Task: structure prediction
Amino acid sequence: MRIGKDLVAAAATPVVLGILADGESYGYAILQRISELSGGELAWSDGMLYPLLHRLERLGHVESEWRQAPGGRPRKHYRLSRQGEGVLADQRAQWNVVASVLDQVWPGGPDDRRPRLALGMG
Result:
């Protein structure tokens, strides 16, 4: 399945902030985590991730630090800032509303609420 560019772009910030909420990470590991979480359906490129990380850092949502990788070249590690925690909480609330609406308008999903709403039980 191909995920449309608009949906990928809309989810990019909350996905990255959510991954960093689990702990600091670096670019390649973030890309691997996105692929793992999506079962390979979302295959982000470096060209998508790094501009986003730079923007999130410029906005103060993430902080970064260069570190020497064991036996390798330096890696830039990113972590969620205090401000980023607030942004993530806000984004989660917004996406929960969107997910709730989609659950209600798409019948047959795992949280199919149409019959309950039709009966006034929802």
About this structure: The chain has one domain: 5-93. The first strand starts at residue 25 and ends at 26.
